[in-house]
Design a protein that fits this description.
Blueprint: E1 4-11, H1 15-28, E2 36-42, H2 49-60, E3 65-70, E4 73-75, E5 78-80, E6 85-92, E7 97-108, E8 111-115, E9 127-132, H3 139-149, E10 155-159, E11 170-172, E12 175-177, E13 181-187, E14 192-196, E15 199-201, E16 206-212, E17 215-219, E18 222-223, H4 224-233, H5 237-244, E19 247-252, E20 265-274, E21 279-282, E22 291-297, H6 299-317, E23 322-330, H7 343-351, E24 356-361, E25 364-368, E26 371-375, E27 379-385
Parallel strand pairs: 2-3, 9-10, 23-24
Antiparallel strand pairs: 1-6, 2-6, 3-11, 4-5, 4-24, 7-8, 7-13, 9-13, 10-25, 11-12, 14-27, 15-22, 16-17, 16-22, 17-18, 17-21, 19-20, 19-22, 20-21, 23-27, 25-26
Helix pairs in contact: 1-2, 6-7
Length: 387
């Protein structure tokens, strides 16, 4: 039996009615039993989290379930920004091995200790889906560990973007937890990762010639701040206007390529500058020899990049096509980036023509250049082939 994905989307202030409608829609479109269910609940529903899980389990009886609070949800061709939305995403994948995990992270001398992770989550290949509370869990520590221990395993997901009374709201099985992260490893079912950037490179490539920790002290043998000012002054008027809305730095992931294009960079915000020394702080550890390029947020480029990334996946899928997609879109996208809501959801429907569901995240997880990272302003997707 081929893989089947079904998505239920609903909106309303009555939690029971809203999630019953979403769960029934998901159940009605699923071919086979539910092997994995993901639930995304708007902030207005989180005080009734236990009721949400009772409804979803009664209607779908999923073998495994994870989910989180969401400041906006994404369904089939539609995005509901705000706190009253509900999405129930269901997967039927005969032969798949799904292992849910409740994860913790604790700061210790010299690093971060992770708890709850299975001994070898990449033992059978596949992928991992992670939904984390940004206040109580170190997604960066988890990704660093998985990049080293399971280098071939793509990790996709996002940071929960809604909470209740100051605490996280995460779902696993029939339980609601208030901190950490929930995750599931997937084996025996193919998962194709897809990461689309929300920023475009501008100006020249520059080599880091001085760095310490997360500080870039020199770019191309000049104080970093001086070099960045030179780059900005040489941009055209449109690019300068985009730079005024927020400057980003793109770090080349694979230095062995002959040239670097959009999508070859890990995009990070500038965390601060020191006018006295000319150092620039980047939200990433830096080293001498890395190649950087200035990036700016741009709706047109983000739209083109998403279409290109999805079209590449559609071509790889061939005639069988996609069964469905999980999508984790930055909460700075949607109507904050594009002229109207629904951009990412509509493009997914247009290009892949398969059920898609997810949420607007406070940070998105996905692979770039063969390593998994926590991103911003991206749309990261887990595409499930039909066969």
């Amino acid at each position: 039996m081929p893989v089947s994905v079904s998505v239920g989307l609903s909106e309303g202030t009555d939690t029971a009615q809203t999630f019953m409608a979403a769960a029934e829609e998901a159940a009605a479109g699923l071919d086979g039993g539910c092997d994995l269910c993901l639930v995304f609940a708007g902030a207005e529903h989180l005080e009734h989290a236990s009721q949400i899980l009772e409804i979803v389990h009664s209607r779908l009886a999923p073998a495994a379930l994870i989910g989180c609070g969401a400041n906006g949800v994404i369904g089939a061709g539609q995005e509901l920004e705000g706190g009253a939305g509900a999405v129930v995403w269901a997967l039927s994948a005969p032969g798949a091995v799904v292992e849910p995990m409740a994860l913790t992270s604790v700061s210790v001398d010299g690093g971060v200790a992770l708890g709850g992770l299975s001994e070898d989550p990449g033992e059978h290949g596949g992928a991992m889906i992670v939904l984390a509370d940004p206040a109580s869990f170190s997604a960066d520590a988890l990704l660093a560990h998985l990049n080293d221990s399971c280098p071939a395993m793509p990790v996709l997901g996002g940071l929960a973007s809604a909470s209740v009374q100051g605490s996280a709201c995460l779902f696993i099985g029939e339980e609601v937890i208030d901190s950490g992260a929930v995750a599931c490893s997937l084996a025996g079912v193919e998962v194709l990762p897809c990461v689309s950037q929300g920023a475009v490179p501008v100006g020249p490539e520059m080599t880091v010639t001085g760095a310490e920790g997360n500080l870039v002290t020199e770019l191309a043998s000049k104080p970093a701040l001086e070099r960045l000012r030179e780059v900005i002054s040489d941009l055209d008027h449109r690019e300068q206007a985009l730079a005024d809305d927020g400057l980003l730095l793109g770090i080349v992931i694979d230095e062995n390529q002959p040239e670097y294009e959009r999508g070859d960079f890990l995009v990070r915000p500038i965390a601060g500058v020191d006018p006295g020394t000319g150092a620039v702080a980047v939200a990433n550890l830096m080293r001498i020899g890395q190649t950087l390029r200035v990036h700016v947020r741009d709706a047109a480029s983000a739209s083109d990049d998403l279409r290109d990334a999805l079209s590449t996946r559609a071509l790889a899928l061939g005639d069988a096509g996609a069964a469905g997609t999980l999508v984790f879109s930055c909460n700075g996208r949607g109507s904050h980036m594009f002229d109207a809501p629904g951009h990412d959801a509509e493009m997914l429907a247009d290009v892949l023509g398969a059920p898609a569901g997810g949420f607007f995240a406070a940070g998105e997880i996905g692979p770039v250049g063969g390593r998994n990272f926590l991103h911003g302003f991206t749309a990261t997707m887990a595409v499930f082939p039909r066969d």
